[in-house]
Each structure stands twice: as C-alpha cells, then as structure tokens.
Amino acid sequence: MKYSTEIQKAQFDVHGLAITAGWVEVYICHPETREYMRASLDNVPFGGSVVADAYLDAPQLPEKSGIAIIRSADEQTWLQIPDHRGKTAYNTENRQATEIDFIGDLPDTLTLLEPKTEFDKWNGKKWVTDNDAQKSALVVEADNEKAQRLNEANSTITYLQDAVDVGLATEEEVAALQAWKKYRVLLNRVDTSTAPDIDWPEKP
C-alpha cells in the first residue's frame, strides 16, 4: 500500500533498543526523587532508546490516598511507598512541629501523633504525659500568682494604713483596709500544692 493511517510504533529488543523506529508510550519519573510524573509519547529512532527517566512499563496506580509511586533504585519496577507530604509531624525529642516535604517512611524522630501537652514524652509508640513535671510547673505558676496577689495586697494595705495612721482616712478607706487585710490573710492560707485546683479568694 502506498498510504497508511496507522501510527508507526517502535519495537524494542531485550536491551531496550529500538529494532523498529516509531512512537511508543512512556512513563516518566522525576530525575531526582524518582517519583512518577506522567505518561507521554516518545519518538524513538532505530537503534535508540526512550528518553532519560522514562520507562516502557506502566505503574499500577494506588487504590488509596497517602501513597506515592517511585521508580526503584535498580530501575526495574515501580514501587508504592507512603506519602505524608503536607501533613504535620512532631519531633519525638522536643515535640516541635514540622510540615513533611518528602516521600517515604518517617524517621524514628518524627511521628504524626500530636502531643497533647508540653509535658508529653515519646515512649516509642505514643506520647505519655509526665505528670510529675506537669504538677511541678502548675505549682510554680500558682506560687508566682500568689506572690503577685500578695504584692498588690501589701501595697494597697500600706497606703490605706498610712491614711488611717495620720488620721486622714475616709470611712470608705477604713472599710477597704479591713477588706484588704482579710484578703491578705486568706491569700496566705492558699495551699499552692493543690494546683491547679485552687479557689483564689475574691479581691476587694
């Protein structure tokens, strides 16, 4: 026949070299990450091979999300590996959050499980809260708040007491002095070791 409507397709030998020139479907991966990118067509000359990072065998597409397709290191097959890109992972040593920007399994120093408190420690499988450390921090926080409240009470009482001592206090100031003194007594009785379950006295 003088004419043909058929597209000339390339044929290859066992070494991947074209024994018949023509077009062929190829499957291309990223030159660095080896991740599958797209399907394309390649026009292969006689004796030539497909373009770099392209392969004749089609990858099997994942049936679920969170999977990436890459070409194996020996370039013989396509592999499906975990893909957590875009997710947030947490450092198992310092709980620092980071966004995953690579494909493959997570290293032992990262987990997708989020710590619930700043006192969580990684036990190899999950986060476990260090209750002793958490309790100590709460007591320290309560001690600081108690000290601030007492400073305010002492300062206010000093001013009101001065007004009473020099005979310049109003009836309101005399009443306020007694209220602040009562407040200071109640503050001193606060047991910060019960933090965070503390019922702070109401300020006058």
What descriptive keywords fit this protein?
204 residues; alpha+beta; 3-stranded antiparallel beta sheet; 2 helices; 12 strands; 26% helix
Give a concise summary:
By secondary structure, the protein is α+β, with helices and mostly antiparallel strands.
What does this 3D model show about the protein?
With 204 residues, this protein is an alpha+beta fold. It folds into three domains: 11-82, no CATH class; 88-129, no CATH class; 131-194. Helices cover 26% and strands 24% of the residues. It is built from two helices and twelve strands; from the N terminus they run ββββββββββββαα. The protein has helices at 131-165, 171-188; strands at 11-12, 18-20, 22-29, 36-44, 54-55, 67-71, 78-82, 88-91, 97-99, 110-111, 120-122, 127-129. The strands form five sheets. The protein has a three-stranded antiparallel beta sheet with strand order 4-3-5, with no helix packed on it. Strand 3 and strand 4 form a beta hairpin. Helix 1 (131-165) runs antiparallel to helix 2 (171-188). The longest helix has 35 residues, at 131-165. The mean pLDDT is 94.
